[in-house]
Amino acid sequence: MNTLLAYRYKRHFKAQPGGQGLKQKQHGKSGNDLELQVPVGTVVLDDVTGQVIADLAEPGERALVARGGRGGLGNVHFSTSTYQTPRFAEKGEPGEERVLQLELRLLADVALVGFPNAGKSTLLAALTAATPKIAPYPFTTLEPQLGVVQVPGAAEDSFVIADIPGLVEGAHQGVGLGDQFLKHIERTRVLLFVLDGSGQEGRSPTEDLEVLEKELQAYRPELSTRARVLAFNKIDMPEARENWEELESQLSARVADALPVSGAARIGLDSLVLRLSEELKNAPPPGRFAPPAETDVLRPLEVDTTRYQVRRKTGRTWVVNGPSIERIAVMTDLSNDEAVRRLEREMDRMGITQELEKAGIEPGHTLRIGTVEIEWG
Ligand SMILES: Nc1nc2c(ncn2[C@@H]2O[C@H](COP(=O)(O)OP(=O)(O)OP(=O)(O)O)[C@@H](O)[C@H]2O)c(=O)[nH]1
Ligand SMILES: [Mg+2]
Fold first, then answer.
1. What is the pLDDT of residue 186?
2. Which of 59, 71, 58 is nearest to 28 (CA)?
3. Tens-digit pLDDT profile for residues 44-93
4. Is the beta carbon of 119 within 6 A of some atom in ligand 1?
5. Residue 293 falls inside a structural domain
6. What integer pLDDT is reported at residue 299 of this predicted model?
């Protein structure tokens, strides 16, 4: 997959439930795992805590995000020394439920950073086999595009370059396509600033560079120290050539170390690629988001499972909430007397029965344990 578009409309996923425990000492069948595919570079966050659960940065990487319940136990598990062949088996345990946020953060080596219309997509098309949409209006590129650049004279040497939507002033606060795309450059190792050398949008290349730097700095200060290469683009245009000559004469100019190029006329592209490949050789490997330790990912359903709360909802209706008792209740087959007796024993053991009786529950009242409803006998 290249994008997360598949999850734009379909958002609820549920694995098959596990089966009920069976007679003849058989465990219930486990439900089949539900596996969802995501593009490489997807970061999975817990929507509630914002914590990173997994960073799927390598092809084939997998993460367990919600644990299934264990299957119901077969009848042998409930035999005791005095009672050898109980009739009941257990229902399967409900699985974990979780709301996730999926974020695609591209894993390109180089990202093209520039104002809309600066010629980023044209450069991508000129440098790689990619065929991005190119048009003379801003925000032509709405989804990031990747291409593989072959380094000239080095058959084995290639790198991945990402074309992302144009950046404008205020992007870090969400202006334009804003921070949606700023995310994508977080992990690229080299930034290629694409400046419109012609100044035809009414801004000078120097001003462009200042705004771009300011936006990156405001979004993530560490981006300002990222390795970068400047491309003074559209050098095929007379206006760009004039601007370039002027800059060259001022050696202290901010963009004096830029490379004059033209994506459209294919000028200066080999030097640009060689410069990028050199920068990549020196740049540190991309950072990864550290997912929490395995034990955190595979955490049990609840930590303190024995705590519970008893409430009188109306005159005749009582409610008990608590992770452990609710789980036992949903796993109980209420049509099976022995299973119900086991539930009662658990309630006695946990002190729930005593608490309900002290509070005034009477036969005929309704008791709700989580989603399970029973009549008090
Ligand atoms: N003369 C000239 N025109 C160029 C050059 N590169 C791009 N253009 C033109 O500039 C316009 C914008 O080019 P794009 O490549 O779509 O620009 P972009 O930076 O990808 O723009 P967004 O996707 O909107 O951010 C198009 O009309 C291109 O034909 C160049 O080197 N020389
Ligand atoms: Mg574009």
1. 80
2. 71
3. 988 888 888 888 888 899 998 888 766 666 555 555 555 555 555 566 66
4. yes
5. no
6. 41
Whether the CB of 143 sits within 6 Å of ligand 1: no
- Give the predicted TM-score (pTM) of the model: 0.61
Residues 6+ apart with CB under 8 A from 7: 102
Q: How confident is the model at residue 255 (pLDDT cuts 50, 70, 90)?
A: confident
Q: Please check whether residues 122 and 70 belong to one and the same domain.
A: no
Q: Please indicate, yes or no, whether residues 89 and 160 belong to a single structural domain of this protein.
A: no
Q: What is the CATH number of the domain that holds 74?
A: 2.70.210.12
Rg of the chain in Å (alpha carbons): 31
pLDDT tens digits, 175-223:
666 666 677 788 788 999 999 999 887 888 998 999 999 988 888 888 8
Q: What are the backbone angles phi and psi of residue 114, rounded to the nearest 5°?
A: -175, 170
Domain span at 315:
309-375
Ligand 1 pocket, 121 CB below 6 A? yes
Q: Is residue 250 part of a domain?
A: yes
Ion ligand 2 residue ranges (Cβ < 5 Å): 121, 140-141
Domain assignment present for residue 297? The answer is: no
Would residue 304 count as lying in a domain? no
Residues 23 and 172 in one domain: no
- Provide the domain count of the chain: 3
Contact 231/257 with Cβ under 8 angstroms? no
Q: For residue 207, what are its two tokens?
A: 């001003």
Q: Is 117 in the pocket of ligand 1 (CB under 6 A)?
A: yes
DSSP 278: H
Shortest-distance ligand to the CA of residue 166: 1
